[in-house]
Amino acid sequence: MVTYNNPNVDICESSDSVIGHPVRETKLKPLLLPGLCAFVLTGCLDSDDSNGNDRNIGTFTQIGVENLSYETRSRSGTTDEEGRYSYLPGETISFSIGDLPIASNVPTAPFLTSMDFTEEQRQRLQEGDISEEGFHTHRIAEEELASSNRIAINTMRLIMALGEDLQTDPSKPIRITDRTIEQLNRYLAENEPDIDFSQPVLSFASPRTPKYDKKGNLEGGSVVNQMLDEICFEPEGDELCEPPPTRKEISETTDDGLRQDLEQKRQQILDARHTLSEISQNDVKNFLLSEAKDFRLDLEAPYFLDPDAVTLAPDETGIQEIRIRRIGSGGVQLQGIGALDASAQGDALNLHSVDWQSGVVEYSHHGDAGDSGTILVNFKIESPDFENYRWFRKTVKVCVTENSQCSQ
Q1: How many CB atoms lie within 10 A of CB 315?
Q2: Rounded CA gap, 158 and 201, in Å?
Q3: By the 8 A CB rule, do 33 and 16 touch?
Q4: What gap in Å lies between CA 60 and CA 41, rounded to an integer?
Q5: Which residue has the higher pLDDT, 38 or 228?
Q6: Model-level pTM greater than 0.85?
Q7: Which domain of life does this protein belong to (predicted)?
Q8: Which domains, and CATH codes, for the chain?
Q9: Which of 28, 54, 244, 369 has the fewest CB atoms found within 10 Å of its own CB?
């Protein structure tokens, strides 16, 4: 294993080299091109401030959460239908759901989730971990935060519960309606609930199974579930927003048919309410990990190894090289590599050097025909716009053979 780190490297290439790349193009444009989004999204979000400075465009989650309020030093607004917000590089951003604050002074970035909300969480992501192969990785830290960090789980769980469709599918946007925000704000003003996102996950979401009293009110339960119980997610005036028939009203009804209708109506009204119990902790974990993975893949997509596969004759024992390249770079030396690891997998391969400045890994083989191995390359690209902690891993298969083709 050879590792070299350079903490102070800037990307010098223009991001427009990514536009023509066919892989995941829909997501690449808003996420990978913060400098160009001002042009692409003019008219959707204000991309120029009063001083004429170009703004960057970010999204809260990959799929987007609509109607989150946000504020930076220079701008305030609400996320649009794709969860987008605008900001100037170097600013911090605060989020709220209506009048309910959920995060403050988060360093701006083209992609954020509840795993980025506190300094402790961000530090954990930046530190990362070492994988079983001995490589630097961010994924272990992401899995840890997504599965056990109270703030990350509780905050995202509430956001999902406030969504119009109460869905946990990481491919569908979360839409929090104006009507939901209005009801939430009214409840906050009238009750002033103490909502603590750092409390234990089970306490935040109790009861596991909602229980209602004779009047149809939630019995006990967490502060958050009591708040959700007062919000109707149906259109204004819908009968599902009415108070449910009480147990007393139903029991005192002598008409069997009417009694059944009242019982059915009560159940329909109660079923229409949202509770945190309808979104499991595992749902939140899978959602956060899926979002983070998709963003990493979008960041990684423009980079490739050259060559991506190698076939060598037994007598070709000289030093070979693998170079990290970027789509559209036109052969220009790759800039912006902040750290680089490499490892040779296979008895016939020798790793000679790793140069983060040029993005080159040198190796050789001493094998016979039929031998094969793999060069693993692990690298991180620095960004001028945000602290990118993510490592990318790519591999090159090396075959030693007297034929022109490598046996799989």
Answers
A1: 8
A2: 11
A3: yes
A4: 16
A5: 228
A6: no
A7: Bacteria
A8: 303-400 (2.60.40.3450)
A9: 369
Contact of 290 with 171, CB cutoff 8 Å: no
| Cα dihedral: 302, 289, 145, 337 (round 10) | -10
What's the token pair of residue 56?
């960057």
3-state class percentages of the chain: helix first, strand second, coil last, to nearest 5: 30, 25, 45
What letter represents residue 167's amino acid?
Q
What pLDDT digit, counting tens, does each position of 44-76 carry? 455 445 444 568 999 999 999 999 999 999 999
Query: What does the alpha-carbon distance between residue 355 and residue 340 come to, in Å, rounded to a whole number?
Result: 8
The sign one gets for the Cα dihedral 216, 217, 222, 227 is positive
The alpha carbon of residue 196 and the mean position of all alpha carbons in its chain are separated, in whole angstroms, by: 22
Whether the pLDDT of residue 36 is over 60: the answer is no
Structure tokens at 218: 């939630």
- Which residues, 6+ apart, have CB-to-CB distance to 309 below 8 Å? 396, 397, 398, 399, 406
Give the pairing type, strands 129-130 and 136-137: antiparallel
- C-alpha closest to that of 190 among 218, 230, 159: 230
